[in-house]
Design brief:
This protein has six helices and no strands. By secondary structure, the protein is mostly helical.
């Protein structure tokens, strides 16, 4: 990775890195990137709405949306690299020796710790996606109708992010022995997934109805 963060890569470079025969960056990073694009689209819609006479009553609200969208975009982009950083120790843990009983116990303990860290990043992606969703919900009403299709694209990118992050949580918690940890993650995953995906579908359908 040439000591560069993926956020510093061009679109083509990042795509090539994902395509390469290596485990990182993978689905977790792609999920986070999808949420960053969703937030960026919220910014775009907001920027084209502010200052328009037709939407003057929403000016203050939309300015807040833009600021939040910038913040959430940065958080999401940071998660692209954080996912890689979280997976690397897990990858190394699987390579630890296990010739003796002591080595086996150490390896297993290390793997368990690393799995929890690896699962935490896609959960963060879910959590920030929930915040980005709120922006698109507002923009459906307060955003410029000329950009309404971008709200629709934004929520579909968000849904892709959520469903992708879900898979990355599941593949990690599947091998975690801590039942309490697993149940906690499953509960939050299921509640966030349903809430966000249902809302994304509803918003998308509303956008379609506005366009036909």
């Amino acid at each position: 990775m040439e000591n560069r963060r993926y956020v510093e890569f061009s679109l083509e470079e990042f795509s090539n890195e994902v395509a390469a025969k290596k485990t990182m960056p993978g689905g977790g990073s792609v999920a986070a990137y999808c949420s960053s694009l969703s937030s960026a689209l919220a910014s775009m819609v907001g920027n084209f709405t502010v200052g328009k006479k037709k939407y003057q009553q929403y000016d203050g609200d939309v300015k807040v949306i833009i600021e939040k969208a910038k913040e959430y975009e940065k958080i999401s982009l940071d998660l692209v690299d954080e996912d890689v950083e979280a997976y690397l120790p897990l990858s190394n843990a699987y390579k630890l020796p296990s010739d003796t009983e002591e080595e086996k116990k150490l390896k297993q303990h290390t793997i368990q710790d690393c799995l929890k860290v690896a699962a935490s990043v896609p959960l963060k992606t879910l959590q920030i996606s929930n915040e980005i969703l709120k922006l698109h919900e507002e923009l459906l009403v307060k955003g410029s109708n000329m950009l309404i299709s971008d709200v629709g694209v934004g929520v579909m990118m968000l849904k892709a992010s959520v469903l992708s992050a879900k898979l990355n949580i599941l593949i990690n918690i599947k091998y975690i022995d801590d039942e309490s940890f697993v149940n906690e993650y499953k509960f939050e995953l299921e509640s966030l997934e349903k809430k966000i995906c249902d809302s994304c579908d509803r918003i998308y359908q509303s956008v379609v109805e506005k366009l036909i």
